[in-house]
Design brief:
Blueprint (H helix, E strand, L loop, with lengths): L5 E5 L3 H13 L3 E5 L2 H10 L4 E5 L7 H10 L5 E6 L17 E4 L4 H13 L3
Parallel strand pairs: 1-2, 1-3, 3-4, 4-5
């Protein structure tokens, strides 16, 4: 089933990035995946996304700084955060855009897909 929604995955761990991209592509989403926050901002210069799925702890430009820059730029994408550290208080920063969901690593792929589909359904 082809979908029109476009998703940006921001994850520094190559295996996880490929897995998430493959799973969402098989669900019919258009998926772009990048390895850090700087690459995500570069992608956003040229494209609009319906959803950004991001890790927090990444080299070069982490997810927190990326999200702050998204908010400053007026980006309207929905955001799902995937992180091993759910107690990260930086996620409570008022300079961040609203985060729909936080998924704690490790997570089940079927749960991940359900969360993404739910996020997309809430935009209709």
């Amino acid at each position: 089933m082809a979908r029109s929604e476009k998703i940006l995955i921001v994850e520094d761990e190559k295996g996880i990035r490929i897995l998430l991209s493959d799973v969402l592509s098989s669900e019919g989403f258009e998926v772009i995946s990048v390895k850090d926050g700087q690459e995500s901002l570069d992608q956003m210069e040229d494209s609009k996304f319906d959803l950004v799925i991001t890790d927090i702890n990444m080299p070069r430009l982490d997810g927190i700084e990326m999200l702050k820059r998204m908010k400053k730029a007026g980006r309207k994408e929905k955001v799902i955060v995937i992180t091993a550290d759910t107690l990260d208080r930086r996620l409570e920063d008022g300079e961040l855009p609203s985060v729909l969901t936080q998924l704690q690593k490790p997570f089940r792929i079927d749960n991940f897909v359900d969360v993404v589909i739910g996020a997309m359904a809430s935009s209709k």
